[in-house]
Amino acid sequence: MEGGAMRGLFTSGILDVLLEEGITFDGAIGVSAGAAFGCNFKSGQRGRALRYNKEYCKDKRYCSLHSLITTGDLYGAEFCYKTLPEELDIFDNDAYENNPMEFYVVCTDVVTGHPVYKKCDSFRGNNLEWIRASASLPLVSRVVEIDGYKLLDGGISDAIPLKHFESLGYEKNLVILTQPEGYVKKKTGMTPVFRMALKNYPKLQAAMERRHIMYNDALSYVDSQEKKGIALVLRPKEALPVKRTSKNPELLQETYDLGRALAKEKLSEIKEFMSN
Which of 28, 84, 167, 260 is a plausible cystine mate for 13, CB 3.0–4.6 Å? Predict the structure, then answer.
């Protein structure tokens, strides 16, 4: 499950249809929003990601310039990873832990610039910090320190981790992307900014500068696996209407609905792929 901040609601729409149809998997892996929203699939909480995003998208504690200035995080860590899942829209840890599906999160080690893949059996205690790290965008997030690592957004180093998931033994995979077919990531125009902001992490800086190359290579690999019949790719038919930090509930709903519509359209194909 690829990230993309609020584009991840497209993924949520697909996952909710799969939940309704009783379609299960041996394992799942998510990057950034793909992890933050995708964990609700393992906990079986259909509609949760859409619900809390629509409810709190305009709350300054959730995502705002105010949060960035006062906490160092565009997405408020205390609100998003404590108040929200523990009090306002409770994450079902029991259901998550009782589901035998393995769930992995991808982060980037800011010291090495390499991806870190974490199998998350529970999100109790400080384990949600792995989700936070995976979704922590450089420049607008503090580095997340957990289990001896210093981490940021997994999309920097492995935005579409199909090759790694196959290396774990998952030989046949459903891949959910949040960009349409034909999308090509371009080199960032913010290289000078990254060089200044990340001067203490030169290997992370280097990873940021070659991110477009790694991303486009990953897309090519996904396409090759799809042609072999060992990957089924679901992606929007055109660029999604929502922006990364959209605060428009109607656009959030529209993005989610596009995911649902695609999943329903491809349902027989998904079931055939799974059964074979």
Answer: 260
